[in-house]
TrEMBL record:
Keyword ATP-binding: no
Record pathway: Carbohydrate metabolism; galactose metabolism
The encoding gene: galE
Organism phylogeny: Bacteria, Pseudomonadati, Bacteroidota, Flavobacteriia, Flavobacteriales
Keyword NAD: yes
Name of the molecule in the record: UDP-glucose 4-epimerase
Amino acid sequence: MGKTILVTGGLGYIGSHTVVELQNEGFDVVIIDDLSNTTIEVLDRITSITRTKPRFEQIDLKDKQAVQHFFKYYDIDGVIHFAASKAVGESVIEPLKYYENNIATLTYVLQEMTTNNVSNFIFSSSCTVYGQADELPITESAPPKPAESPYGATKRMGEIIIEDTTKATDLKAIALRYFNPVGAHESAKIGELPLGVPQNLVPFVVQTAAGIRKELSIFGDDYPTTDGTAVRDYIHVVDLAKAHIAALGRLLNNQNKKACEYFNIGTGKGSSVLEIVNAFEKSTGQKVPYKMAPRRAGDITAAYADTSLANKELNWKTELSLEDSLSSAWKWQETL
Ligand code: WQD
C-alpha cells in the first residue's frame, strides 16, 4: 500500500470527499471521527465509490489518552485535520464548547504527531480569518482581522498554534483557507448531510427547492454589490478535496518553503446570493421561492479568493463550474 494518511473528521462533508480523492491517488487512509455531526453510513458510501474500505476509529479527540493510543498503534505518514465544530451561530452561544472541541483537540493531535515523529500536517482553515478584507480578490498576505465569532477565532488560533509548533519542532504544515464549499460527489453517494436547519446558503436553497423549507430568506439586499446581496466564492467540494491532495504532495516531497504555508482555496470568482439562486434555478429547473430579510449579524459584504499562489505552488486549480456545484447539490438532495 501507499503512504498512510490519517483524516480526522473523515466522515464529515469535506473530509469524506477528501478520503475519496486520497484513495483515488493510492493512499492508505485511516479515519478518526466521533460521529457527532455525521453517520457511520458515510463509511460504506465512501467504500461504494472507491471499492476500498478506509480503516476507521470512532474516537473523540478530546480523549487525550485515546489520541495517544492511536498514534502508538498506527504508523502514520501524514495528517489532514478536519475534525472541529463549525456552526458559526452555535459558537456564539457555546464558545467554550468550540474552544475545547476545536483547540484542545488540535493540541492533542499535534502533541502526538511530534512525539511520534509524524511531520506532515494539513489544517482545515477558513477565509473567515480575513473578515471583510480591505482588497478583493483576497491574497494570503491580507492581514487576518478580529474574528466575528468564536468559530472564526478557533480557525485563526489554530493557525497560530500550528505556526508556533512548526517553529519549535520538525512539523511541516500547510493551512488551507477554504472559501465557501458547496456541491457533492458526482455519484450522489456523499454530500452535505442535512442535520438540523441549514445555516449555509446552498443547503437551504436546495431544501427550499425540495419543498422541505417554505422559502429562502435572503439576508440583506442593501449591500454595496451589483444586486445588493452579499458576495462569496463558492467552490465545488471535489475541487477543494483535490487541493488537499496537492498540498499533501508538496509536504511529502518536501517542496514546502517554510514551516507553515497558507493557501486560499476558492474559485477566484464572486457570486451574489441572488446570482446563486438564479444559477441554481437555471441549472436544475427547480424554483426557489425567496423573500428579502434583514442582514445577518456578523456577515461581511464580499469575499472571493486570489488563487494565484495555490495555482502556482500547489499546481492546483478548480476544474468544476458553479453549475456543476449547484446541480450536484440538487442531485444529492434528490437521494435523501
Ligand atoms: C453565504 C451568504 C449569507 C443562508 C460560513 C462560515 C465559513 C464556512 C462557510 C464553515 C451570506 C447568505 C445564507 C440563508 C442567506 N463555515 N445566506 N440566507 O457565512 O459566507 O461562511 O459558512 O465551514 O467559515 O463563515 O456562508 O452559506 O452561511 O452564507 O441569504 O438562509 O448567503 O447572508 O451572505 P458564510 P453562508
